[in-house]
Write a structure and sequence with these properties.
Layout: E1 2-6, E2 13-16, H1 22-33, E3 35-42, H2 48-59, E4 63-67, E5 70-76, E6 88-89, H3 94-105, E7 111-114, H4 117-120, H5 125-133, E8 137-141, E9 145-151, E10 160-161, H6 168-178, E11 184-188, H7 196-203, E12 208-211, E13 214-218, E14 223-224, E15 228-229, H8 234-246, E16 251-258, H9 265-272, E17 276-285, E18 288-296, E19 304-305, H10 307-313, H11 317-325, E20 330-333, H12 346-356, E21 360-364, E22 367-371, E23 382-385, H13 390-399, E24 407-410, H14 422-429, E25 433-437
Parallel strand pairs: 2-16, 3-14, 3-15, 6-7, 10-11, 19-20, 23-24
Antiparallel strand pairs: 1-24, 1-25, 3-5, 4-5, 7-9, 8-9, 11-13, 12-13, 16-18, 17-18, 20-22, 21-22
Length: 440
């Protein structure tokens, strides 16, 4: 097992390139695999999660080759996947499992989607239910958890569906099943969710229609090969946006970061807190808006963060909690019950860690209240249990910039699921962090 050891102090400066966007990388693999022809993917995130998606399609007969820094994908067409001879092991990737469940529901062969212990604890009824309504046959452990046993050869029909929560994963799952269904499939979004799927399906030649929050797809369409340039991941950049904001005399530029409007909530929230963040050279890359982001140290203030904010920054909230702990005043988060069913219960785990470092925190069912400590040393030292959650580990690493004593974070192996090379990049930017081996 790996742990992070962070010495107190330091500041973040310079220019940094974070890895490719995880959400876009997953979809680039999936859609190019079932497209007709050869696609070229640049900027692909070589993380454990994305490699799990790639490995699943290799097992199903898709060929991937390297060409310098690019990944070439020889698509097999919408109906060209081969039956896997074993369980598709998706590791820790909830995105892989939920999106693939929709894709596999439309195949002619049986399949089993499995993963590690963490993934097997996460709720899958939210995709099983709409797929069953479409005519799929899916059996999960205890009715709703992985592994998912999917019976092939089912006749799917289009449905009108309103998910119980705003979720890009649920929406994408249903739309992918809709490619294989008779008639039209419409998803009525109850709130804003990431739109990477509909952007990229359009780039691959699939026609979708939107009326307000209703998004429709007609079954039977084919995908055509497309070259995808994956932008840098804003979720990975978020840790450094917070770190440069709270550290003394920080000035950091993050290059080529995806700033999709359905993803940039972390930027908007931090700006409301008083962060000095500037987007420059805004441009479009393979259908996704991209910019360079410069962030400088700033005095932050506590704010109220509500359900609409949560929709646009669900994955970045752990990092935002670190910023809130350094702010003047109190930050109140509500409408974030979804945080409790991520890789860990992120409300409980972040609250425990903040309390360990001397921050006053009050927990509610759907959020928490953080009383900021804006003094030079906002945090004491301490021992943090990440519960094998990559975003918990990276968020608390940034707390070292405002700590009075070392911070040790256990169970950091899963950081590679989203951000390979995190320690090296953070150290080069100015964080006094080391990765150490320890016994489980």
């Amino acid at each position: 097992m790996r742990r992070f050891h962070i010495e107190p102090g330091g500041t973040l400066n310079g220019t940094l390139e974070v890895p490719g966007d995880k959400s876009v990388s997953h979809r680039a693999i999936m859609f190019s695999a079932i497209a007709r022809g050869r696609s070229r993917i640049t900027g692909f995130l070589e993380s454990a999660d994305c490699l799990a998606t790639l490995g699943a399609f290799e097992v199903m007969g898709v060929s991937f080759t390297r060409d310098g820094g690019a990944l070439l994908v020889d698509g097999v067409g919408r109906d060209g996947l081969s039956a896997p001879d074993a369980t598709l092991d998706l590791g820790n990737s909830g995105t892989s499992m939920r999106l693939l469940s929709g894709l596999m529901a439309g195949q002619a062969f049986d399949s089993v989607l499995g993963g590690d212990a963490s993934l097997s604890r996460r709720p899958m009824a939210r995709v099983i239910d709409p797929l069953t309504e479409m005519g799929a046959r899916i059996a999960g452990s205890d009715g709703q958890r992985a592994p998912l046993h999917i019976t092939g050869g089912q006749r799917l029909r289009g449905i009108d569906y309103t998910p119980p929560v705003a979720s890009a994963q649920i929406k994408s799952c249903v739309l992918l099943a809709g490619l294989y269904a008779e008639g039209a499939t419409t998803v009525h979004e109850p709130g804003i969710s990431r739109d990477h799927t509909e952007r990229m399906l359009g780039a691959f030649g699939v026609e979708l229609t939107r009326e307000g929050r209703a998004l429709s797809i007609t079954g039977g369409q084919s995908l055509e090969a497309f070259d995808v340039a994956v932008p840098a991941d804003l979720s990975s950049a978020a840790f450094f946006l917070v770190g440069a904001s709270i550290g003394e005399n920080g000035e950091l530029t993050l290059t080529g970061v995806g700033v999709n409007p359905t993803r940039r909530g972390v930027v908007d929230i931090l700006k409301r807190m008083g962060a000095d963040i500037t987007l420059v050279d805004e441009r479009e890359q393979a259908g996704e808006p991209v910019a360079d982001i410069t962030v400088r140290s700033a005095a932050l203030r506590g704010i109220d963060i509500g359900a609409t904010d949560v929709e646009l920054a669900i994955d970045e909230l752990p990092a935002i909690f670190i910023a809130a702990a350094c702010a003047h005043g109190t930050t109140r988060l509500t409408g974030a019950a979804e945080l409790r069913v991520k890789e860990s219960d992120r409300i409980a785990v972040m609250a425990d860690g903040l309390a360990e470092l001397g921050i006053e925190v009050t927990v509610q069912d759907d959020g928490l209240t953080i009383v900021g400590r804006p003094e030079q040393h906002s945090f004491g030292g301490g021992h943090i249990h990440s519960h094998e959650d990559h975003r918990i580990a990276m968020s608390f690493a940034m707390a070292g910039l405002r700590a009075s004593a070392p911070i040790v974070i256990d169970d950091c192996d899963f950081v590679d699921t989203s951000f390979p090379g995190f320690v090296e990049r953070a150290r080069n930017a100015g964080l006094a962090i080391e990765s150490q081996e320890h016994d489980a």
